[in-house]
Amino acid sequence: MKSVLFSRFFILLPWILIVIIMLDVDTRRPAPPLTPRPYFSPYAGGRGGARLPLRRAGPGRGREQRNESRRPPPPEPPQPTIYAITPTYSRPVQKAELTRLANTFRQVAQLHWILVEDAAARSELVSRFLARAGLPSTHLYVPTPRRYKRPGLPRATEQRNAGLAWLRQRHGHQRAQPGVLFFADDDNTYSLELFQEMRTTRKVSVWPVGLVGGRRYERPLVENGKVVGWYTGWRADRPFAIDMAGFAVSLQVILSNPKAVFKRRGSQPGMQESDFLKQITTVEELEPKASNCTKVLVWHTRTEKVNLANEPKYHLDSVTIEV
Ligand code: UGA
Ligand code: MN
């Protein structure tokens, strides 16, 4: 009897050991996380929500992120909203330009797009476009008076002023939230890095602009962290020899200079930037961005006029398509 028991025991022993080892291995597998993993989508946080690429990164950021699973980080201070004022007008390439612009802006956290149509009313094309753009936005319109619609005269004066007026009206009655304003023409090309740079604007910041003024680039000349002159090939006598795409202004400065606007009277093409900046700052006060103004992060690209020579006058297409 005893020997039978012993032999059964030795037959079963390896199986018992195998079961014990398997159970042990299974319990060593990491447990599934209690909280769901963070999911980063370009649309996370809804309209204007935080997006990964433009989070302000600091040294040791990777380590911080790993710790996040244990203890939530202290809330980051609210970052300034970037207000982009874009004048735009109806023409064959308008929707294409606005599409490129929206594709860029959608990747920038906390950006509010102020789109100002040069028109007597909001157009259906722009209204529909904005409704689907997935961006926090404000849609304004103001027509340029006919007498100013001539070659050689400054463009988009009334539209930029309408954007400024909206900002002042919206923020005038309360202590200003941190904000930065810049003028984003609809045909330029903007790198995402540009928005990181301009977001830290304290008063007025400046940076180089590519493909402008008949040169590969124009830029503010910087010495010891201060702007001391301008690298430009066109009207170097301008007090601020800079394109509209080359500067940003803090919301606070816009609010504390309520009369600063773009002027029609006496304004010459290419002088609008200087005329405006003169009202709110001095050259000595400017804050150089983009590595002391040594990097081009925005390009004054201009879209070629499209050839519509073969558009039919009769025998039109059987459907009407918005382009
Ligand atoms: C240059 C500057 O980069 C502009 O900032 C400046 O407004 C312009 O000169 C000027 O002469 O006033 P440029 O490429 O020649 O730019 O000008 P556009 O791109 O044709 O126009 C600037 C902005 O105004 C664009 O966003 C455009 O859509 C808008 N615009 C232009 C209007 O709203 N209405 C118009 O009749 C023409
Ligand atoms: Mn342009």
Automatic annotation (TrEMBL):
It is an enzyme of class 2 (transferase). It comes from Physeter macrocephalus. Pathway: Protein modification; protein glycosylation. It is found in: Golgi apparatus membrane. It is a single-pass type II membrane protein. It catalyses: 3-O-(beta-D-galactosyl-(1->3)-beta-D-galactosyl-(1->4)-beta-D-xylosyl)-L-seryl-[protein] + UDP-alpha-D-glucuronate = 3-O-(beta-D-GlcA-(1->3)-beta-D-Gal-(1->3)-beta-D-Gal-(1->4)-beta-D-Xyl)-L-seryl-[protein] + UDP + H(+). Its EC number is 2.4.1.135. This is Galactosylgalactosylxylosylprotein 3-beta-glucuronosyltransferase. Coiled coil: none annotated. The gene is B3GAT2.
